[in-house]
Each structure stands twice: as C-alpha cells, then as structure tokens.
Amino acid sequence: MASDVAAGQRKVVLTWLPTVRTEKPWLPNCSIAWIGDDDRGVELEIVSLDLDDAVVVIHVMPTELRRR
Q1: pLDDT at 40
Q2: What's the rounded Cα separation, in Å, for the pair 26 and 7?
C-alpha cells in the first residue's frame, strides 16, 4: 500500500505545474508550491525547494486535510 501511495505522489511531482513561487528571506532558495491529482484522484499539495542542481520536495499532503 505505501509503495502505491508513493508512486502516486511521484506522478504528481513529475508532472507538476507550479501555482505559487515565493521568495523567503530565511531560505537561500526559492520554494515552489503546486497542486495535482495522484493516480487515485486524490488532490495533493506539494511544496519544494528549487536548488541549483535539483528540486527537493519537502511537503506532500492531501488538500482535503488543509480544508478541515
């Protein structure tokens, strides 16, 4: 089950369209946030750091939990 969830999250991360890009004075890099559906149709919120040589995902959460 956990590998199925991770696979769905990877799909969202790999097919992203950023919705928000923010500059944080306390972070040396830009953070990027976007929303997308996983393989099961669950809408996920993803936040990452845009580093020089990689994009590092630091947060993935179903948007339904944010709305509660």
Answers
A1: 83
A2: 32
